[in-house]
């Protein structure tokens, strides 16, 4: 793992609660990584846990303040029962063993997604881990389990409808604002979405929140993803010009300044990221 002193660029940022940008990762390639080595698929998932630990440890060094990891999608229930069982065993182990490390790192853990289909034991581990790390301020780590973005949007729409007058239909603007507030209130919009494993699709992950996200696809399998890969994605991200549908230099549109890039995602907490070569 690279140390902060060997990083080619240094990022600093500010937001209201957690410093830094919001990075989301689709952790793909565990099964193929194992197959190429003649190992069972669960061995790939086990190796993927180590990659999670590396990423979480290194994220604050790159001024990532919010990190959302796609651990188990709602569609993953279609996988063989023994693989699903093994994945949930690994999730329970992670939630049981990792909170002490996360607390030392100042990381707050939150699990997003449905919980009604999870076992009682897993729900207990989730609640215990969330409570134990609730005071973390260096990194807000969200792990998506039994997660579907379409389902999240649908549930947000249902929740919004309950707060609206039945006598007067809401305007599109009002409904859109209510949905945005529900879906992005906790972590804001995604700034950078990374997918490992060579595939190039979003797979029902943070669809609303990623409307203006920069996308980074890599052929690296998730178990091999390390600090250098994360830093490379951030370096590429820093070179992109984010316009959010506007024109650089126009009123209200931020331009790159002082060797850095100004980034304000619609619906996100405002912040500016600057970087300088070391």
Protein model, in words:
It is a single chain. The chain has 278 residues and is of the alpha/beta class. It has one domain (4-240, 251-277): Undecaprenyl pyrophosphate synthetase, CATH 3.40.1180.10. It contains eight helices and nine strands. The chain has helices at residues 30-36, 41-58, 81-97, 99-105, 120-132, 149-162, 172-184, 227-239, and strands spanning 9-12, 21-26, 64-73, 107-112, 139-147, 192-195, 214-217, 261-263, 271-277. The strands form two sheets. The protein has a six-stranded parallel beta sheet with strand order 4-5-3-2-6-7, sandwiched between helices. Helix 1 (30-36) packs across helix 2, helix 2 (41-58) runs parallel beside helix 3 (81-97) and helix 6 (149-162) crosses helix 7 (172-184). The radius of gyration is 19 Å and the shape is globular. Mean pLDDT is 84; it is low at 1-17, 254-264 and 266-278.
Instruction: Return Rg in Å.
Output: 19 Å
Q: How many β-strands, per DSSP? A: 9
Q: How large is the count of helical segments? A: 8
Q: Quick one: CATH superfamily?
A: Decaprenyl diphosphate synthase-like
Architecture, CATH level 2? 3-Layer(aba) Sandwich
What is the makeup of the main sheet? Answer: 6 strands, parallel
What name is given to the CATH topology?
A: Undecaprenyl pyrophosphate synthetase
Contiguous runs where pLDDT drops below 50 for at least 5 residues: 1-17, 254-264, 266-278
């Amino acid at each position: 793992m690279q140390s902060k002193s060997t990083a080619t660029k240094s990022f600093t940022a500010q937001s209201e609660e957690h410093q830094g940008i919001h990075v989301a990762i689709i952790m793909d390639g565990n099964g193929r990584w194992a197959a190429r080595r003649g190992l069972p698929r669960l061995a790939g998932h086990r190796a993927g846990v180590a990659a999670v630990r590396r990423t979480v440890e290194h994220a604050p060094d790159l001024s990532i303040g919010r990190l959302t990891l796609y651990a188990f999608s709602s569609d993953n229930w279609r996988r063989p029962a023994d693989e699903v069982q093994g994945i949930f065993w690994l999730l329970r182990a992670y939630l049981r063993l990792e909170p002490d490390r996360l607390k030392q790192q100042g990381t707050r853990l939150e699990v997003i997604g449905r919980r009604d289909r999870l076992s009682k034991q897993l729900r207990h581990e989730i609640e215990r881990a969330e409570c134990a790390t609730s005071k973390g301020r260096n990194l807000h780590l969200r792990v998506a389990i039994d997660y579907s973005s379409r389902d999240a949007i649908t549930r947000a729409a249902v929740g919004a409808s309950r707060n609206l007058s039945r006598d007067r239909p809401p305007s599109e603007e009002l409904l859109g604002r209510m949905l945005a507030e529900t879906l992005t209130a906790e972590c804001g919009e995604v700034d950078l979405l990374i997918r490992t494993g060579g595939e190039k699709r979003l797979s029902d992950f943070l669809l609303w929140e990623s409307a203006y996200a920069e996308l980074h696809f890599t052929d690296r399998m998730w178990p091999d993803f390390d600090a250098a890969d994360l830093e490379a994605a951030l370096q590429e991200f820093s070179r992109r010009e984010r316009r959010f549908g506007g024109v650089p230099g126009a009123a209200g549109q931020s331009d790159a300044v002082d060797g850095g890039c100004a980034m304000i995602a619609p619906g996100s907490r405002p912040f500016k990221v600057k970087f300088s070569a070391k």
